[in-house]
Amino acid sequence: MHEIMREPDGSLKKARAAAWFHAIAPNIEVGVTTETHSRSSKDFNGMDLHLIQKEDPIPTDGYALNIESLRRDKFGTDGLFTAEQVAEIIRELERYRDTPNAGYVLNTAYAQSIGGPNGTGPHYEMGGYGTGPDDRGIRWYFEWVREHIGRYEYPRHIRDSD
After folding, report:
1. Strands, E assignment, 35-78
2. Predicted local distance difference test score (pLDDT) of residue 1
3. 64, 98, 72, 146: CA torsion to nearest 10
4. Cα torsion at 124, 125, 127, 129 (round to 10°)?
5. Nearest CA among 20, 5, 88, 78 for reference residue 54
């Protein structure tokens, strides 16, 4: 691994990477994530947004994006979820929806796995409801987003009631 990706001086190295990025693309916001259990500071000079992951707390200042939520399905059983796993994700989605300075990226083996158990992954479509091997998918997630956030039509989400 390149030295810029390692401690010590993590905040200085992240600031240097942000400066390089800003020099090329000054109008694009920059954030750098650290491994969830890292002791490295998550803040650095030049940071425009917080990139958090898993169960990291949502910062109260600035914008935060959870770029890798806690994955509930497992590689090998991609797209299979218990009712409790779906309920846990829905609670997370509600918490992020109710936090005006935060965004959320769903992390699932179904959408990530290369190959997967049936050799067709990764899956970029909804699939089924994840209730069994013949119903693999994250359709419940897309339906929740459509119902509670709205369908996306550039440049914003549109609720059916709009």
Report:
1. 50-53, 64-68
2. 65
3. -110
4. 90
5. 88
Dump the DSSP string for 100-155: TTEEE----HHHH-SBTTTT-BS--S-B--SSSTTS-B-HHHHHHHHHHT-EEETT
pLDDT at 162 (0 to 100): 57
Q: By the 8 A CB rule, do 14 and 32 touch? A: yes
104, β-bridge pairs: 66
* Tokens describing residue 101: 């300075």
Strand duo 156-158 + 151-153: pairing: antiparallel
Spans in the chain with pLDDT lower than 50: none
Predicted TM-score (pTM) of this structure? 0.84
Which tokens in the block code for residue 79? Answer: 């797209």
Amino acid at residue number 12: L
**Cα–Cα distances in angstroms (integers) from residue 51 to residues 2, 56, 110, in the given order:** 21, 10, 22
